[in-house]
Amino acid sequence: MSLPPLRASLSCLLLLAAACSNAVAGPSDAVAESPSTSAPGTVVGTPTSPTAPVEDVGQVPTTPTPTDTVTPVETPAPETPVVSTPAPTTGVCSPLGSLSSLTGNLTTWLQTAPIATANSGGFKEPGGTELAAFEGAFRTLLTEGPTPRVVQDLAGMGYGVSTFRNDTGGGWLVVREQGLLSRGGGTFIINLFPARDLWLEAPHADSDEGTLRQTATQLVTLGARALLITGSNRCAVTTASPCSGTTSVCGTKGLRISDAAHYGNNFFTAAHRALRDTYPDAIAASIHGMDAGDGPEAAVVSDGTSAPRPDALSNRLRDSLNTHLTGTKKAFSCNAADDSGKHRTLCGTSNVQGRIDNGASDACFAEAAAATDRFVHLEQSATLRGTGASSKAVMQALADTVPCTLGGSGLGCPAVVAQDCP
């Protein structure tokens, strides 16, 4: 069977890249080929400490219980890809030939994303000026593609940009730290041909076991716009986060500045702000894990608030999850009056990215007064983060909740003529 035009084009880009330098290091199962040469959104500052509501924002997520068993981790087979008709813009396509190129299975490759381990000291907080510059460069990357200027700007902050040729097709940009001096900044992937107005976030990609593999699979299978992966364990450093909320996950009560979901001065949040500014109507899904224990919860969903709202996006996701889940445990919503008091209040109200999307007055200290339905927070049992039928239920529920409104390849999206860069 002949290669789709997009895959053939990306193969040609590998040859074009032969004259370039500035590679982004890839893991052993990806082949790096020919490296290249080449205000809106307020940065969350270190604020003073007002009083603010607190929420228990963490459960120890990695220990399965006898009733909540993780099946062995393996990379699920991707759904048969479908592709799209609209021609991509010249701004996205024209600079690709100057970038380094990686090939392999994107889902597998992303599971090797560098993450500074707990108590390693591996998270280094960027300064406010650098965060603003990164947000601006990432926004330009989203709107104009990897122009020489934006690639140079990101390189000055320790980030390289490469293309990825996935063995199941599609076109991707990878933005990740390069060089020997990692700051725990994170890895960010952009889908050049998305199917859904959705992006995924894994702020606890290693500590919430299974969410890195899960979100990498969801990115490719659903055809999401992007995936943001934390660059540090939430307990990588001991410095306390000043933001409201509390947890005992790190062994002592309180949040740490290395926790990407609960501190804003990081490249992860800067990328989130750039995505929100570029795609104001897109849905951001923050994917987490919880220790379900003996409770009734397979999942707890929220819109980033705990306010009851019959038409909330989180309620629709809950309903779809319960349609597809197997077993006795079920999904609950923090925004459904009929679920009130039946589940733990893991509602994500102190999640910094959710507060940003819901228009909180201060994303570090203030909970949002109302929801925009542009953010969804998903806490999952270990079973849902495994590789069995329940994990497929999460994939299907997200596909049901966020429709195929763009032109690219994704689960449940109509198959149309393949698009390609000119």
From TrEMBL:
Stretches the record annotates as Disordered: 27-89
Signal peptide residue numbers: 1-25
Compositional bias segments (type: Low complexity): 39-89
Entry keywords, A to Z: Signal
Name listed for the protein in its UniProt record: Alpha/beta hydrolase
Source organism per UniProt: Corallococcus exiguus
The organism's taxonomic lineage, starting at the top: Bacteria, Pseudomonadati, Myxococcota, Myxococcia, Myxococcales
